Batch of 2 targets.
Target 1
Amino acid sequence: APRAEAAVARPWWHHRRSELLALAEAQAPCYVYDEGTLRGQLEALRRLSSVDRIFYALKANDHPDVLRVFHEAGLGFECVSAGELEHVRTLFPELAPERLLFTPNFAPADEYRRGFELGAFVTLDNLHPLEAWPELFRNRNVLVRFDPGRGDGHHRYVRTAGAQSKFGIAPAQAKRLRELADRLGLRIVGLHAHVGSGILLPETWAETALFLAELAETYFPDVRYLDVGGGLGVPERTGAPGLDLEAVEAHLHRFKTAHPRFELWLEPGRFLVAEAGVLLARVTQVKEKGGARYAGVETGMNSLIRPALYGAYHEIVNLTRLDAPATQTVDVVGPICETGDVLGHGRRLPDTREGDVLLIAQAGAYGAVMSSHYNRRPPAREVFLPVGASAAVSPTPENAASV
Ligand code: LLP
């Protein structure tokens, strides 16, 4: 009998290699998003049967075709700015307002006004808006974000709870909030907490729900919705263990059984899009200096800032020589004038030459959305690869402008 191969499935880009090479030829540097992988992640999340509504956090990836997949699947959208609200509305003018969740942070009054105008669920994370702009909130329904006191995540910059974080209201202010709300006829219909991003501990979301349920039961009798945030992590390296969704569901189910009156909401970004995206960049020059070897590519931190900002790990392969044995250890660097412009340190690659296409994996979340024009280098464009498409993928209109 054939020996059972390692159970680790190869990432999608192994199967679509020739299409990717053709794309790179015409369009690199570019992000490529695989529709099949987006759908697979969506399927996986749907197995969380205790979750009543999912709002996709479009800050992670706001490409129109990506949003269309989630729109068709019936997801809502979590927006953090007026710009994100307008983006969604322009793409889906007929979207039911209850599929919009507006969760801004230190936003000006106008943006809350816009959120209400659109009929979105609006989330407060400070008492300031109620004290400073009471007329805006009179007789409204809102959600309120609380700080559970302890954050989590892949880096300290993305832990969004606890004394060091600017997010959420302290539970000690619940009573004051209740008084302000009563005075304004404001109904608090939901509570929210988001502890951070890139979390692999399956009990996280049930713990958040419990924290919010206790607050609701003590202070806010009108609460129906508990939004337990996003933050669902993905493995950085191929084959590393990911988030155990069955365990997540088991914890949530236990919570739901004990607290049946609440609807549970989730607002994932990364989990849905990270693996679906890769960044393709051609090697411009190679170099050896002081015992180190460098492979320079045509784009760097201006397209993908995560390694520079968080020390994030992204797997890098030489797509042109995917099956060749690794023979060298290189730093993969971009063309930007900063020492931090490194996409990967000490990577094992095959003999790599000018013109080779390097693939930077797990780049579908917080890649293109965080890019910049630093050094006046246009960041990588974005290409959506539909299920079953051929290599003849043309630029999308918004990309065509920059071609
Ligand atoms: N909800 C709220 C209120 C959030 O602040 C965030 C992310 C999410 C949901 C979605 O989190 P996710 O499921 O994607 O982890 N730029 C960083 C991540 C920043 C996350 C910001 N907030 C990175 O590249 O890792």
Target 2
Amino acid sequence: MSENLSPEIQQEIVRRRTFAIISHPDAGKTTLTEKLLLYGGAIQRAGMVTQKANRHQTVSDWMDMEQRRGISISSTALQFDYNDVCYNLLDTPGHQDFSEDTYRTLLAVDSAIMLLDAAKGVEPQTIKLFKVCRERGIPIFTIINKMDRPSLNPFELLEEVEKVLGILAIPMTWPIGEPGDFKGVYERDTRQVHMYQRTSGGQWKAPVATSGLEDPNMASIVDEHDRNLLDEELEMVDELIHPFEKDLFLEGEMTPVFFACAINNFGLDNFLDRFTELAPHPADLRTVKGEKPAASADFSGFIYKIQANMNKAHRDRVAFMRVATGKFEKNMTVKHLRSGKKVKLSFPYRLFGQKREIIEEAYPGDIVGLVNPGLFRAGDLLTVGKDFQIPSFPRFPPEIFCRIRLKDMTHNKSFRKGLDQLGEEGVVQVLQDPRSHSRLPVLAAVGELQLEVFKERMLEEYRCEVTFDRLDYGASRWIKGTIEPDGGYTFTLLYDEAERPVALFRNEWHMNQVVGNHEDLEFLPHPPDF
Ligand code: GDP
């Protein structure tokens, strides 16, 4: 940490942890989030955060559509304190189709918890999200959840993590009992045994009986069969598995693994202790390419996400900013680097699901919701001091395309507004076709659900009923090089929101053929100025 930081900022940095949970839908992310908040005292009773379909009020799942379907699309940031440590948990949307947004959120965290279902191991969405974390070089913790249910053998699970993800998986705890007959965990470094006890509905923190393996009372807790199995397995673990090394973990090469049962709060308190001890604090913010920007005493932050109409009572757009360096204060005037404009930040919010409250100050690692007057875009930098380099935001080449139609043309004005705002938010990408007489754009998405969300939000928030005509393209690339307007290209040429040329192809095969035929142009999976 830089020495010119004030003791106040240093202290706040040291006590902060900003992280996200990455997982495949249904692994238990909502449950884990809820339990962590329960530990932090941020909620009184588990079940208040994300009651899914047909349960009642929710905090982090706020859109009607999400509630009806019981999926979590929109991200918010949850802040809670536990043992004087301040945690910022950035909620990443869980649905596999909603990927671009999720990836952006991962640029704003300092570490991630990878949550796996003990019966399923590494699943497709986890792989995608893992790759983003890996590219940034952020440390990753692993929790193997649902240990109370029939599960894969722990050695198999560890091997799968290593083989599929290419990261060394080191068990910090070890499950006791046969798979499916879970008795508790053995903590390898303290040599303590934590016995699993069900609690009614898992609403409260579970009391955990702990004692050393050598304790004479152990015989009454762990029967002979389980004890022999444990001894045998621990011997194999010591022999076959690399010891945990903090440096390798911080470089993203090694992941500490914990076995848990989130629904019953089991394994979470010792996890949280180890997490707090090992997870880097926000002075170690890394860019998307893994570099560390210099620590600075001056405020700087970056927008990682824009969200319109979050709350029906406040129909506005919120830009989510992560404080990167220095102290943020309400009413601060900052420089918006992309436009060069000075902006006064008068309405900074802390958001907790639907609720928002004005905040006076924030420190590195914190997330501030800024009411967005249309100026902010994901990736924008705000600073009071020197110009500042941070993550280049990843873009993903869309694979689904359609032309959009408005049913009732008298709503054209709000239709255009909706297109602008939802496009800016990144719900879908809006591509312009200069040859189209109707000036109707092409919508491009990475996943199917993006289109559905777009359609629903157009109706709900802009009162516009839209239909889509699917277009027969399956791949796209941004183009670098000189484009001839009448170049007779065999791909379709459109322009993105910043007027950068984008080529659309029928499929991957077509794309590879075109790319091979055009040595004068470069075809990139992200914008050329990325
Ligand atoms: P998400 O889709 O990752 O947010 O998953 P949820 O938290 O909604 O969990 C999916 C399902 O798994 C729900 O029915 C949970 O009650 C259940 N679940 C979560 N954790 C556990 C666990 O530790 N054990 C068992 N048996 N079920 C769990």
